[in-house]
Amino acid sequence: MLLPWLTGFGAGLLFLHFVQKLLFPYFWEDLWFLLKVVRYGIQMEIYKLRGELVTVLDKFLSHARRQPQKAFIIYEGDVYTYEDVDKRSNKVAHAFLTHSSLKRGDVVALLMSNEPDFVHVWFGLAKLGCVVAFLNSNIRCNSLLHCICTCEPKAVVVGGDLLGSIEEILPSLPKHITVWAMKDSVPQGVVSLQEKLSLASDEPVPTRHHVTSSLKSTCLYIFTSGTTGGSSPNFPRITGSYDSRKVPKT
Predict the structure, then answer these.
(1) How far is CA 89 from CA 128, 204, 224, in A?
(2) N or C: which end of the chain has fewer CB within 10 A?
(3) Can you say whether the dihedral through the CA atoms of 112, 73, 94, 200 is positive or negative?
(4) How far apart are CA 88 and CA 104, in angstroms?
(5) Is 120:88 a contact under the CB 8 Å cutoff?
(6) Residue 43 near residue 207 (C-beta atoms within 8 A)
(7) Which residues, other chains included, contact 23 with Cβ-Cβ below 8 Å and sequence gap of 6+?
(8) What would the mean pLDDT of 236-249 be, rounded to a whole number?
């Protein structure tokens, strides 16, 4: 009597499995993703109640303390450890602390290619509490000028290989925007960040500069290739503790 019942039960399970695969092929993947989102949501609420907001930068610094010699970036055969990136980004932060008036909440536009210094400058500015706007490195002239003016930055940091793109629009940039370049030799009207880094300290930056007080604090602005409105005023605005981000190959 038990055998027919077990046979029927097994056949029912097989039938349900077949129907699920036929009609809802991604059911289990969606379920696990939903559970993961719920778990992260609960964790975020707990952090918020405790006043413990963990940002991407906080997470990086935590890993850097725990595993300083572990590779963080591998780029064109060169290895950059967590400690290397931490110290280089400290230099960026101290360079801006010493040679600019940037402060927490200020927007800084970042026009750089896919290279390690992209992360160094991003983290360095984040250590000052600045909101970094990732500009699309493929745009030029009026489109680039439009994106810069849209995010209303106090400064623009440009990679050495993209300096020509900024030179084209330099006379049209608002006067209050300071342009910094990751290059030793720069044209008039541009400040050499590379030169400042050679003299900057790599000591840790006090956390008071970048402590986050609200989940609604703006973390990043990201201009994309255009598929999500990167060339329009309604560019994506990332808030909260974790975010999408553009990083070199790791």
Answers:
(1) 10, 9, 24
(2) N
(3) negative
(4) 20
(5) yes
(6) no
(7) none
(8) 38
